[in-house]
Amino acid sequence: MIRLNQLSSQIQYQKVEVEKLEQDQIGIVYMNSPKDLNCLSAQMKKELISALKQFDNDNDIKVIVLLSKLAKVFCAGADIKDFLSSSLQTQLLNDLFKDIHDEVSGLKKPLIVGVNGFAFGGGFEISLLADIIVGTENTKFGLPELNLGIIPGIGGTQRLSRLIGRTNAQRYILTGDTIDSQEAYKYGIINVLVKSEELKDKCIELARKISSKSLYTLMVAKQSINLAEETTLHSGSKMERFLIKNLILRKFEIKNNYLIKKNKIKYNIKN
Fold first, then answer.
1. Annotated catalytic residue: which of 125, 156, 169, 184?
2. CA separation (Å) from 166 to 89, 157, 187?
3. Residue 78 a catalytic site member
4. Catalytic-role residue among 51, 76, 78, 130
5. pLDDT for 6
6. Which of 50, 70, 55 is nearest to 24 (CA)?
């Protein structure tokens, strides 16, 4: 295991841990803040964004996995103390949660999230930003923000509606009811359901399958799939055709450059 704060003296993590599986080209980020149940405090958001971006910019990493070190909690959501300690003017002027939403949704590489225990509020919303969600029999999701007189703020109203349908999203958001693992699996929120003790291994198994592919192709595929939520079928299909043309041209260019280099070596031709 290699910790990023051993690689860079500028990074000192208090609430997250990182692990780099070099041979498999997988980067793992663990949330580990037992005192506040991994809530999305300003410090947690800062460290989480930093760790995820570090792996996203690491040429030796193809897939990122996000887990919790806590046995029964993935993330308890936003830190209410942040709201209470900041003035109304600050809250109105700041674009709340834009940083965590944009940075996680903007990751270029595939993100697998393994959720064991409860993921409420922002914890659920971060899960919805992932490309694949692995859950267990103990997984529980919920968006209880209306109980506090607010609404979800990291894309929850938008992404949950697109994923499970408007009326189903209305039910869970307006009532604040939790979604257990079986319901989540039925709705397609959880893509893979395993036993608690198998969670990390399953996430790594999936990550290994993905990392066997070309990094560039993985990023292009993720980009194309994500467009489906943001554009029309016609425009998305048109972009898909454009992207596959670029991939074919790139493969041809790589093969052509290889043959040129090989012939130069064979015939001892200098540049």
1. 125
2. 32, 9, 12
3. yes
4. 78
5. 41
6. 55
Which among 145, 155, 169, 221 is annotated as catalytic? 145
Q: What is the mean pLDDT of the chain?
A: 88
3-state secondary structure at position 250:
helix
Confirm whether 125 is a catalytic residue. yes
pTM over 0.70: yes
Predicted confidence at residue 246, as pLDDT, reads 84
Phi-psi region of 232 (alpha: psi -120 to 50; beta: other; left: phi over 0): beta
CA distance 210 to 220: 13
Give the strands of the sheet with 111-115, arranged side by side: 16-21, 26-31, 63-68, 111-115, 132-136, 192-194
Q: Which of 27, 117, 121, 122 is catalytic?
A: 122
**Residue 37, Ramachandran bin (φ over 0: left; ψ between -120 and 50: alpha; else beta):** left
pLDDT, mean of residues 196-221: 97
Task: Burial-class residue 147 by CB neighbours within 10 Å (0-12, 13-18, 19+).
Answer: exposed
Q: Which of 44-58, 219-233, 257-271 has the lowest mean pLDDT?
A: 257-271
Q: Specify whether the CB–CB gap between 5 and 30 falls below 8 A.
A: no
